[in-house]
Amino acid sequence: MIEGLPGMGNVGKIATDFIIENLKAEKVIEIYSHSFPHCVLVNEENLIDLPKIEVYQKPLKDKTLLLIAGDVQPLDEVSCYEFCNILLDTFERNNGKEIITLGGIGQQEVPKSPKLYYTGNTKNIIKKYYSSILNNNLYGVVGPIMGVSGLLLGLAKTRKIPAISILAETYAHPAHVGLKEAKEILTYLNEKLSLKLDLNQIDDSESNDNNRKVIDNQKLKKLMKKPFITKINKGSETDYIG
Q: pTM here?
C-alpha cells in the first residue's frame, strides 16, 4: 500500500496521484467524513465536490497495489487514529504485506537538488528498501512525522506490519508545489517496485513568470490543485506534515 495525502509541498499527494493516473488504477473506495473540513471544493467543471479520501487498486505482475489519495487529512488526533486503524483493518483483510507512506521535509529555501530520506518501523524493512539515494539519518534532522503518513507507520508496528516512509526535502511554503521533489520519489519507486511509470510526463522545470512548477501532460494538471494542509507549531527541528 502506498499513501500520499496532502502535506508539506504536497509531495506525497503529487507522487501518489501521478502513480494512479499513470497506471490507470481503479477507484474502489470513496471516504467522506465529518472529521474532514466543513466545506466544499470547486472542481474543474465549476461544480462542487465534498472533500474526500480515495482508495485505488492496481494489479501488477507479482502484487496488487493499493493507493491512498485525496483532498484532505483527518482534522484532529482522534479522527486520524480512527482513520488509520480503519485503513489497517482493510489492509489486513486483504492480506496486505507492506506499507509505504510519502511526504516532504520542510526547508527554508527551495532545494535545488532535493535529498530523499526514509525511516521505518523495523530494521528489516529499512534494509529491504535501502538505496544509495536514500538517507536513513533522520534523527535530529526532522521532528515528529505528523498525520496519516507518520501514524500509519506507528500503528502498523503494533500489528507487525512492515512500513516505511519516504520523505523528500521541499520548500516549507503553503503555495509551493513540490513537483521536482515528487519526481525524485517517483524515480526511486519506479525502479524499486518496477512500476513502469512514464516519468517523461512530468516537467519539473521552473516557470520564469511565477517560479512555479508545471506539468507537461494536460491530464495531470489536476495534480496542481491546492488541497487543505494541517498546520503544526514549528520547533527547533524541521517539522514534517504527513
A: 0.85
Q: How many CB atoms lie within 10 A of CB 193?
A: 16
Check: CB of residue 181 under 8 Å from CB of residue 11. yes
Burial profile 22-36: b = 16 or more Cβ within 10 angstroms, e = fewer: bbebeeeeebeeeeb
- 9 closest CA partner among 212, 216, 218, 233: 212
Question: In the chain, which ranges are continuous DSSP H helix?
Answer: 11-23, 77-93, 123-128, 147-158, 179-192
pLDDT at 162 over 70: yes
One-letter amino acid identity for 140?
G
Q: Look up residue 234 and give its three cell numbers.
A: 514549528
What's the N-to-C CA distance of the chain in angstroms?
16
d(CA 153, CA 146) in angstroms, rounded, equals 11
Encode 159-181 in three state secondary structure: CCCCEEEEEEEEECCCCCCCHHH
171-208 pLDDT, tens per residue? 999 889 999 999 999 999 999 999 999 998 887 654 33
What is the per-residue pLDDT across 88-116, written as a single tens digit (0 to 9) for each? 999 999 999 999 999 999 998 999 999 99
What does the domain layout of the chain look like in residue ranges? Answer: 2-241
235: cell is 520547533
If you search the block for the grid coordinates 482534522, which residue do you land on? Answer: 75
CATH of domain 2-241: 3.40.50.10900
